Amino acid sequence: MTNQNLLKEYIHSENLIGLDSVLKYQLKIDGAVASTWGITSLGPVGFFVGLIVGALFWF
């Protein structure tokens, strides 16, 4: 099994760990990006998602 298949299996499972159970949409977006472009792209994507969510709650 490749890492991409394991990642997709985790994303679609019901056994989520930590904040993954709360941040389901971010998990799906990050998982799609990670399985498409590689795991190293999660840092910048997470930063921008957090920045957008923070800006929405700030105003």
Give a written overview of the molecule.
The protein has about 60 residues and is an all-alpha fold. The chain has one domain (about 5-59). It is about 70% helix and about 0% strand. The longest helix has 17 residues, at about 40-59. It is flat and about 40 Å long. The relative contact order is 0.12. The mean pLDDT is about 75.
In total, the number of strands is 0
Q: How many domains make up the 3D coordinates? A: 1
Which whole number gives the mean pLDDT?
A: 77
Give me the Rg, rounded: 12 Å
Q: Helical region count?
A: 3
Extract low-pLDDT stretches.
none
Secondary-structure element series: HHH
Question: Largest sheet, described in full?
Answer: none
Structural class: mainly alpha
Helix content: 55-70%
Characterize the quaternary organization of these chains.
Answer: single chain
Q: State the distance separating the first and last CA atoms.
A: 45 Å
Q: Give the strand content.
A: under 5%
Shape: flat
Write a short abstract of this structure.
The chain is an all-alpha fold and 59 residues long.
What does the secondary structure layout of this molecule look like, with pairings?
Layout: H1 3-11, H2 24-37, H3 42-58
Helix pairs in contact: 1-2, 2-3
Q: What labels would you give this structure?
A:
59 residues, mainly alpha, 3 helices
